[in-house]
Amino acid sequence: MIKIVGKDALETWVDEVIARMRTYGVQAKGDHFSFESLRRAADLRLDYDVTILPPKKYLQPPRETLLRFSGAVEYESVFDEDPFVIFGIHPYDLEAILQMDAIFEKDQRDEHYLRRRSKAVLVACDVETVSENVFAGCMGTAYLESGFDILITKIDGGDYVVDIQTDAGRSIADSLKSAKDANKKALAARREVWNKNKARLRRHKLEVPLEELPALLEAGYEHPIWEERAQRCYSCGSCNLVCPTCYCFDVRDDVGWDLKHGVRARVWDGCLLAGFAEVAGGHNFRRNRADRYRHRYYRKGKYLPEMIGKTACVGCGRCITACTAKIANPVEVYNALLEEKDDH
Ligand code: SF4
Ligand code: SF4
């Protein structure tokens, strides 16, 4: 069902959801925006440009207990299965979540991620304010017509089109059922928002067709750009930590004072960090900064597309903003590889 509501009705509905279940939503944080626990609808900012961290932090938390153990053989797995809702996910961040779903479902199913994910209700919203470095328009993620439970779009005139597509969405949308159905005019206005966003969300212009990225990278493995740019890299890992499609983690055992009880937890990791590829015995598969720097672009533009059929950069632009050395812009790197190719 697709409804049309005014701002007051939208807020009434959001407050009802907050009263029922664990709710997160985008809120102002100083000059920036952040996904936080939402206590009242009036705090929800659907007009934000981009959040500091993507909403993946609720689906794959920065630190997550996997199991508790006592002694050598007794353990109990820990799962988070409390339902929750996230309000205000931009289409590019939604696409990143859909990619994480595909990755965690593939081959060795990740039950910790998947059980939590099955309890999440994702309420997306179309972009109202263009952020400083977004290029989702080049990555096919400026808008999505499916993949969400509910999508909210502010249309010309100030009303909101609310598209409720799944059972999970319907389960939290009781009070919207009596709202007016969106008519043809409202749907055309939504289409206009989508078309505009496809054109607007291009602060950087990717010259490479997405389907050609894997071959371009294949040919550019020895390109000097990796060494040149990596010389300025601090190996801080900020580009990894803010990225909605980075999901790598490290697993650690925290053992109690009695040396019997403890927990096994996973924490976010990042391929730009010096110790990322270090294994037992101190061997490091990517000791050189340039190898780590290059690996990230191959991961996004070649390895993951070959695995899940999608480019694993959704064009949010967060890495560009987060990198103090100003070397993390994927568009600059991919365009530079293309220039070199065209020169030959
Ligand atoms: S690589 Fe950069 S622009 Fe692409 S999804 Fe990650 S943070 Fe966003
Ligand atoms: S944010 Fe920039 S400096 Fe830091 S690891 Fe990434 S590329 Fe290197």
Give the helices and strands as they follow along the chain.
EHEEEEEHHEHEEHEHHHHEEHHH
The number of distinct β-strands equals: 12
Main sheet makeup: 8 strands, mixed
Question: What proportion of the residues form beta strands (DSSP E)?
Answer: 15-25%
Report the radius of gyration as a whole number of Å: 22 Å
Shape: globular
Helix content: 25-40%
Unreliable stretches, pLDDT < 50, 5 or more residues? none
Give the CA-CA distance, first to last residue: 54 Å
Strand order of the largest sheet: 3-2-6-7-8-9-1-10
Number of helices: 12
The chain-level mean pLDDT equals 95
Structural features:
8-stranded mixed sheet; binds iron/sulfur cluster; 2 domains; 4-stranded antiparallel sheet; globular; alpha+beta
Record the SSE blueprint.
Blueprint (H helix, E strand, L loop, with lengths): L1 E4 L1 H14 L1 E8 L2 E6 L25 E8 L3 E4 L6 E6 L1 H15 L5 H8 L1 E6 L10 H4 L10 E5 L5 E5 L2 H5 L8 E2 L2 H17 L12 H7 L5 H6 L7 H4 L7 E7 L5 E8 L20 H20 L9 H5 L7 H14 L1
Parallel strand pairs: 2-6, 6-7, 7-8
Antiparallel strand pairs: 1-9, 1-10, 2-3, 4-5, 4-12, 8-9, 11-12
Bound molecules: iron/sulfur cluster (2 copies).
One iron/sulfur cluster (SF4) binds next to helix 11.
